[in-house]
Amino acid sequence: MWLWLWWSTSTHVQAADDSLKPGDTLNFSSPQLYSQSGKYFLHFYSIADEASIDTYMAIYSAYDNSIVWKGNREQSVDQTDAVLSLNFSGVLKIESHFLEKPIILYSPPQPINNTMATLLDTGNFVLQQLHPNGTKTLLWQSFDYPTDTLLPTMKLGVNHKTGHHWLLVSQLTQMHATPGVFSLEWEPTGQEMIIRRRGKVCWRSGKFRNNRFENIPEDAQRVLKYSIVSNEDEDSFSFISKNENHTRWWFLSDTGQLSHNQGYVVRADLCYGYNNDGGCQRWQDIPKCRNPGDVFTKKMLYPDYEYVTYDKNENISHSDCEASCWSNCYCNGFKEFTDGTGCIFYHWNSSDNNTIDGTVSGVDFYILENTRKITPHHRGRSTANFLVLFSID
Ligand SMILES: *[C@@H]1O[C@H](CO)[C@@H](O)[C@H](O)[C@H]1NC(C)=O
Ligand SMILES: *[C@@H]1O[C@H](CO)[C@@H](O)[C@H](O)[C@H]1NC(C)=O
Ligand SMILES: *[C@@H]1O[C@H](CO)[C@@H](O)[C@H](O)[C@H]1NC(C)=O
Ligand SMILES: *[C@@H]1O[C@H](CO)[C@@H](O)[C@H](O)[C@H]1NC(C)=O
Ligand SMILES: *[C@@H]1O[C@H](CO)[C@@H](O)[C@H](O)[C@H]1NC(C)=O
Ligand SMILES: *[C@@H]1O[C@H](CO)[C@@H](O)[C@H](O)[C@H]1NC(C)=O
Ligand SMILES: *[C@@H]1O[C@H](CO)[C@@H](O)[C@H](O)[C@H]1NC(C)=O
Ligand SMILES: *[C@@H]1O[C@H](CO)[C@@H](O)[C@H](O)[C@H]1NC(C)=O
């Protein structure tokens, strides 16, 4: 019985490319591991700037090749020697000479060799123990460790049996996968979703009523079916899409925008802390020098500043720069350094005359504009939501 099962399992693994069996490895040049129907695939990818190349083990959606999960976001590895492996002790790990010790995704209490790691058609990468009687035990799953993307059936909330929390945490910058500034969480007591910025709640979805959240645009919710579970085992939130072609994921960006594949779900980057529009939370008064409706807008112009100040902290990014510029009346605009960390603040000596020389082709930076004066950029629904959110007062 056991021998037959082992043999048939091995054959299956070799025939289909959706699994790793004990002894299998996957490196940067290996063929991708595809889920059975090809919806998702797993492989190593690299991202480079002038200073470094970072390599991550990632799960992609084959729909548009976007990354939906990363296995080593806290620590990048070396492209030339990074290896994902499942060994004969049942340990699933990523190794590279960059690392002092391997990144252990799962290690069983006792060595076991009847395991298999499979990329499922849900995008969940699961490690299972295969018992001689034909049953399987789930040992580990990527869905328990969300990064910045919520896939259908992936949970937010808490597992009461293990105390484990499921939440999304944005990257520090587009380039740096390290956990950043924003998190999306499920709050069981209020039955609502929240977004925190550096731990402080900056947005609330509003209570779940009639299969809808008050502070999420109808466009973003229409095709979703939510599943809210509250029992002694867990308190969780998840969704599925009623139309396969619509919402394939929610993605929490480094700047605090929660989007689905066709527009925005929430723009927490527009919560400046002084009003309650669209679910934004109040945590501070509006600075004397700012007006309701002021938002930082990206411009590609030559900033005709009078002086510049810097914050070179590598652990801060866009939204930190935005928050400090907002509350500093001497700050008129900002940008990050080229890798997306740190801040460059622009100042004009007379704060009411933000002169921009539009005749010179310039650089991307952010300057305050009043939304009530902005002509909408034609970016479809997303912009419309953003205007609705702030045209209330
Ligand atoms: C990477 O894996 C492939 C098989 O998938 C193997 O042929 C190759 O030698 C490996 N490369 C390195 C550098 O280990
Ligand atoms: C599996 O990997 C773990 C962790 O690196 C190691 O301690 C163990 O000896 C390995 N088992 C085998 C059979 O190589
Ligand atoms: C797997 O473990 C079993 C029981 O511990 C052992 O008899 C068998 O030889 C092992 N197989 C391999 C391929 O290591
Ligand atoms: C199958 O085997 C496992 C491990 O021995 C055991 O925990 C499980 O209860 C068994 N299931 C059935 C249906 O026999
Ligand atoms: C999804 O898109 C495909 C290809 O465009 C189409 O054939 C299919 O009918 C669509 N499904 C739904 C439910 O709209
Ligand atoms: C950034 O964070 C790292 C890790 O937490 C810490 O070691 C380092 O001192 C921080 N750097 C700055 C400039 O705060
Ligand atoms: C603006 O203020 C800064 C800081 O006080 C000063 O160094 C600079 O010379 C001033 N520039 C102009 C054009 O007045
Ligand atoms: C703002 O600066 C421009 C260019 O220096 C100048 O022409 C204009 O009069 C200034 N406006 C005010 C209100 O100071």
UniProtKB/TrEMBL annotation:
Domain Bulb-type lectin residues, every copy: 11-140
Signal peptide interval: 1-15
Keywords tagged on the record: Disulfide bond, Glycoprotein, Signal
Positions of transmembrane segments: none
Highest taxon, organism lineage: Eukaryota
InterPro entries membership: Bulb-type_lectin_dom, Bulb-type_lectin_dom_sf, Pan_app
Name assigned to this protein: Bulb-type lectin domain-containing protein
